[in-house]
Amino acid sequence: MSKPTLGNPQNTIEILQKYNFSFQKKFGQNFLIDTHVLDKIIRAANITKEDMVLEIGPGIGTMTQYLAEAAGKVIAVEIDKNLIPILSDTLSEYDNVTIINEDVLKLDIQNLANEENEGKPIKVVANLPYYITTPIIMGLFENHVPVESITVMVQKEVADRMQTGPGSKDYGALSLAVQYYAEPYIVANVPPNCFMPRPKVGSAVIRLTCHEKPPVEVKDERLMFDIIRASFNQRRKTLANGLKNSDRITCSKEAITEAIEQLGRGASVRGEALTLEEFAVLSNELWNSMQSERSESI
Description:
Layout: H1 9-18, E1 31-32, H2 35-45, E2 52-56, H3 62-70, E3 73-78, H4 84-90, E4 97-101, H5 109-117, E5 122-127, H6 133-142, E6 147-155, H7 156-163, H8 173-181, E7 182-190, E8 195-196, E9 203-210, H9 221-233, H10 239-244, H11 253-262, H12 276-297
Parallel strand pairs: 2-3, 2-5, 3-4, 5-6
Antiparallel strand pairs: 1-8, 6-9, 7-9
Helix pairs in contact: 6-8, 9-12, 11-12
């Protein structure tokens, strides 16, 4: 590459000064300034020339340069219009990069994958703005976008939540949702001094390898997630009380008690003790109850 690699502080500062760029707090901008971390991300994402990569929040193009070297095609989606001229400059040598000035949450990624990658699964790589990490990742999963893997920099605490299991204080709805759709693996912990400006929290790179099909079979995916959310909404309550208080779960209190008994867990069990498999069993039991209660009322 004849252009300077941006993954070091000096080159980053030069570009920011050249364009008189100021960081926007509302966009959660923290640019990576550590080449070792960038190398780790690219390796973990296992990118080849066969791949189309979607990068969310490219910033000044630091990681985009690395991605462009490794991938067949890169689509970089940046919300901040002030960064578009910078990206046009830093990525001018790469003819395999497309920059889109758009809010990724409003973008039809399914359509993008169809148009740009013939509907084949894409790889997502990003240094995500921490305030919208969960909506972005869950949006990709819930909309069934064809994604092979998601390798992202997130807040350390969020990475821990994604990969933890039952009984841990970090275990919750996000853990179960991520593990239903993907296999999480923490690649590296990244301290604040690897960014400009420095975030107040530690970060981690996590790779989510998407399942070809979910590890559990459920009759109604939405119902299972309603049950999961209801059971973690009030963590101090028993699972039975959490479900009975939810307006999303329409079956009788007796049916809820009975379904929990089927798990062989006892009446006082809390949601945080249940595995994904147990939530699937519970969801299918309640689905059956709701169907039979509905047919009885007709």
